[in-house]
UniProtKB/TrEMBL annotation:
InterPro entries for this protein: FAD-bd_PCMH (IPR016166), FAD-bd_PCMH-like_sf (IPR036318), FAD-bd_PCMH_sub1 (IPR016167), FAD-bd_PCMH_sub2 (IPR016169), MurB (IPR003170), MurB_C (IPR011601), MurB_C_sf (IPR036635), Oxid_FAD_bind_N (IPR006094)
SUPFAM superfamilies on file: FAD-binding/transporter-associated domain-like, Uridine diphospho-N-Acetylenolpyruvylglucosamine reductase, MurB, C-terminal domain
Annotated catalytic residues: 164, 238 (proton donor), 334
Organism this protein belongs to: Dyadobacter chenwenxiniae
Protein name according to UniProt: UDP-N-acetylenolpyruvoylglucosamine reductase
Chain ranges of the FAD-binding PCMH-type domain: 15-188
Documented EC number(s): 1.3.1.98
GO CC annotation, single: cytosol
PANTHER family to which the protein is assigned, alphabetical: UDP-N-ACETYLENOLPYRUVOYLGLUCOSAMINE REDUCTASE (PTHR21071)
Function summary: Cell wall formation.
Chief location of this protein within or outside the cell: cytoplasm
Length: 338
């Protein structure tokens, strides 16, 4: 294991923003991770855990030891007639893992195809798309405490999953490094095509009885049509969460803005698409120099090349204020600012 100094993180974040880490270490096993965490030389040093960098906005250099978990492996624990349990290394590409499951007809994650990032970062954010969240398939999360180097297994319940939230973003933020995730997947998949875009795309594909591979291909087609490829245009996918507001507030807004979409999340709460709010506030396709709002999806802030993280943060803040003035709704970023 090599520890490098003054290390550029530009290729370790999907915005493609320049940031320099004081020190950088890539760890390929739990043992290597533990070794560096308990090492007397590094034990008292500030540490920053960086996975695929698909949910981070660098606004400055990182004066810390940046640890990049590159722990690989997709291992079968056990299976029966109905399900299979897989333990997956934190450093595996999320999309590659989904493709592995689709190839083997393991159902449960096909709706999460083409989401960027690593398996280790997925439970921290409780990633979700098209009616599925990772909490639906996670059995447990293996993690190592940063302060002591001790391994702990978190059950699904202990992860305290919420909408784009988990205990790793709240009570235990910056206290653990996820090293592996155990999934329970369905060998007799139940197809989830409740979202209209998925149904529409499957119809365009002339698929009437979809398999999980069909659903995966439909989701990939939708995401490619709406979202820019980070390899081409720097971005972190959805920049803001879809806000959930009280039913009474939604009904009042609906009277003023009849076209406002909303989706019930409970008897008293309605989820409103953040992209719709941003677009209606006039931001879709906005550009200021090297940064802007994507022309096809207002929920995505972009770096066209040479952009600055602080400029993106300021743009996000301006959008928040604009939406709040018009609708009385304060948008919350999904992306973590550093």
């Amino acid at each position: 294991m090599q520890i490098q100094s003054n290390f550029s993180l530009r290729h370790f974040n999907t915005f493609g923003l320049e940031s320099v880490a004081s020190f950088f270490a890539e760890v390929s096993s739990v043992e290597e991770l533990t070794e560096i965490l308990v090492d007397p030389v590094w034990r008292q040093s500030s540490k920053f855990i960086l996975g695929g960098g698909s949910n981070v906005l660098f606004t400055q250099n990182v004066d810390a030891l940046v640890i990049h978990p590159a722990i690989k492996g997709i291992d079968k624990i056990n299976e029966d007639e109905h399900s299979i349990r897989l333990k997956v290394g934190a450093g595996e590409s999320w999309h590659d893992f989904v493709m592995h499951c689709v190839e083997h007809n393991y159902g449960g994650v096909e709706n999460l195809s083409l989401i960027p990032g690593t398996v280790g970062a997925a439970p921290m954010q409780n990633i979700g798309a098209y009616g599925v969240e990772i909490k639906d398939v996670v059995e447990s999360v293996e993690a190592v405490s940063i302060s002591e180097g001790r391994k702990r297994i978190f059950s699904n319940a202990e992860c305290e999953f919420g909408y784009r939230e988990s205990i790793f973003k709240k009570a235990l933020k910056n206290q653990y490094v996820v090293t592996g995730v155990t999934f329970v997947l369905n060998k007799k998949p139940v197809i989830n095509i409740g979202y209209g875009d998925v149904q529409k795309t499957l119809a365009e594909m002339n698929v009437s009885e979809p398999t999980i591979k069909d659903v995966s291909q439909a989701v990939i087609a939708i995401r490619r049509s709406k979202l820019p490829d980070p390899a081409q245009i720097g971005n972190a996918g959805s920049f803001f969460k879809n806000p959930e507001i009280p039913l009474e507030q939604y009904n009042s807004l609906k009277n003023a803005f009849p076209d406002m979409p909303g989706y019930p999340v409970s008897e008293t709460m309605i989820k409103v698409p953040a992209g719709w709010l941003i677009e209606q506030a006039g931001w879709k396709g906005y550009r200021q120099g090297a940064i802007g709002v994507h022309e096809k999806q207002a929920l995505v802030l972009v770096n066209y090349g040479g952009g600055n993280g602080n400029d993106i943060r300021e743009l996000a803040s301006t959008i928040q204020g604009s939406v709040e003035v018009k609708y009385g709704i304060r948008l919350t970023p999904e992306v973590n600012f550093v």
